[in-house]
Amino acid sequence: MTSVQVKVLRSLETLSFADLVLKPTAINGTEPKDATDSTLTVNASKVDLGFWECSPGSFKTARDGVNEVILVLEGKGTLVSDTGERVDHEAGDMVLIPNGWSGIWEIHEHFRKQYITIAV
Fold first, then answer.
1. How do residues 93-110 score in pLDDT, each as one tens digit?
2. Residue 38: predicted pLDDT
3. How many CB atoms within 10 Å of residue 29?
4. What is the CATH number of domain 20-119?
């Protein structure tokens, strides 16, 4: 039988982010850099839970095959859909990015989020 462990996050300082790396989809001459800490992946149920951070800048992004729920832990950003709809979000906001959404993510202040992706 596989050992199952409960994980408790007491502080963001306990996360093991790698060094921030330049986003390959950066746009408008910006240089956003990001890193991820995948805290939990449950392959059987197609759920991924983790933490992500990014420095200011803009980059193209899409949700293909997953719905994503995020809790903004710090910073400010704007999601701009391919159709031009703008959704601002900041620390304390919970955001749903649905499967099939695509557009640009503008990071205005150093940004950290907790995310859950659910494959469809």
1. 989 999 999 999 999 999
2. 67
3. 7
4. 2.60.120.10
Domain segments of the chain as ranges? 20-119
Choice between 112 and 40, residue whose per-residue pLDDT is larger: 112
Q: Indicate if the alpha-carbon torsion angle 25, 29, 33, 38 is positive or negative.
A: negative
Instruction: Tell me 91's DSSP state.
Output: T
The more confidently predicted of residues 90 and 16 is 90
DSSP state of 56: S
Distance separating alpha carbons of residues 22 and 108, to the nearest angstrom: 16
Phi, psi of 26 (to 5 degrees): -60, 145
Residues 6 or more apart from 3 whose CB is under 8 A from it? none
Q: Which two tokens stand for residue 59?
A: 């980059």
Is the separation of the CB atoms in 103 and 79 below 8 Å? yes
pTM, two decimals, is 0.76
Report the SS3 class of residue 110.
coil
Strand order across the beta sheet in which 94-97 lies:
21-22, 33-42, 47-54, 111-119, 66-74, 94-97
